[in-house]
Amino acid sequence: MHLKVKNRLFLLLLTSLILAALVLSLSGCGQSPLKGAVTVGGSTTVQPVAEKWAKAFETKNANVKITVQGGGSSAGIKGCAEGIFDIGAASRELKPNEIEQWPDLKATQIAGDGVAIVVHPSNSTADLSLEKIRDIFAAGSNTEWTVINREEGSGTRDCFEEKVMAGAKIAPNAEFSPSTGAVKQKVAGTTNAIGYISLGHVDSSVKALSIDGIACSEDNVLNKSYPISRYLNFITKGEPKELTKNFIDFCLSTEGQNIVKEEGYITIK
Fold it and tell me: How far apart are CA 262 and CA 58, in angstroms?
């Protein structure tokens, strides 16, 4: 009798151990094999959506850390070329001199964007011609306008200078702001201010102007009727490898591009 009881207890214990091992095995099946860290740095336009991508990717991959910081497009490109960043975030294309200096850099388009001309919400101005915008920024700050410009190295500034200024110089007395967010904050708090920011950053705190009757909207950027648009890019040193490639692939996936749309940018897939 005692032997039978002992046998039953042994079988019960053995069964429990097998079930516990099976549960542990199954619980590990859903875990991502990815591990490590990726550092992204550069454009303050790209930064908000990159931070959302990073959070979503980390949620799916518990052993991965994605660090995102700003600094401007040029800083991001240089930092990538020098190995400071795994990914340089840029709100513009690579320049010819950058390609010449760092021929192994590779740009991957991750989203589309428009550059909005913004004023204070109380400003009655709703539309300006491209020529008038150029004249305002060339004249600089005066009693009519407080002109807000971006710093050297900003991809948004490069886009604005190329597509609006067309060789004309922005007046040196324009006020400088170090990020897209800082421009928006300055315009939102200054009744006669005018500046330019990413379409993805436009909200009710500022008013986006039409240009020659064309609103800054996703549809008008896509159909190319709005004159100030660009691609946002991730820059890597050569083809992205391993974890970096997995992260970029996620950003370009359906889930990643849904985040692009949620953040007010334009999907490319």
Answer: 18
Cα gap 232→70, rounded to integer Å? 14
DSSP-based helix, strand, coil % in the chain, nearest 5: 45, 25, 35
* Alpha-carbon dihedral sign for residues 91, 97, 99, 103: negative
* DSSP string for 167-228: TPPPPTTSEEESSHHHHHHHHHT-TTEEEEEEGGG--TTSEEPEETTB---HHHHHTT-SS-
pLDDT digits (tens, 9 = 90+) for 120-156: 999 999 999 999 999 999 999 999 999 999 999 999 9
Do residues 89 and 41 lie in contact, with contact meaning Cβ atoms separated by under 8 Å?
yes
Q: Which domains does the chain have, with CATH numbers?
A: 37-112+231-262 (3.40.190.10), 114-229 (3.40.190.10)
Residue corresponding to tokens 């009727």: 225
Residues β-bridged to residue 113: 230
Tokens for 69, please give them. Answer: 């910081």
- How many angstroms separate the CA atoms of 246 and 249, rounded? 5
Using the structure block, give the residue that is written with the tokens 């490590």.
36
Cβ atoms of residues 147 and 137 within 8 Å: yes
Query: Encoding tokens for residue 110?
Result: 């991750």
Distance CA 243, CA 250 (A): 11
Alpha-carbon span 2 to 73, nearest angstrom: 78
Eight-class DSSP state of 45: T
pTM: 0.81
Q: How far is CA 134 from the centre of its chain?
A: 27
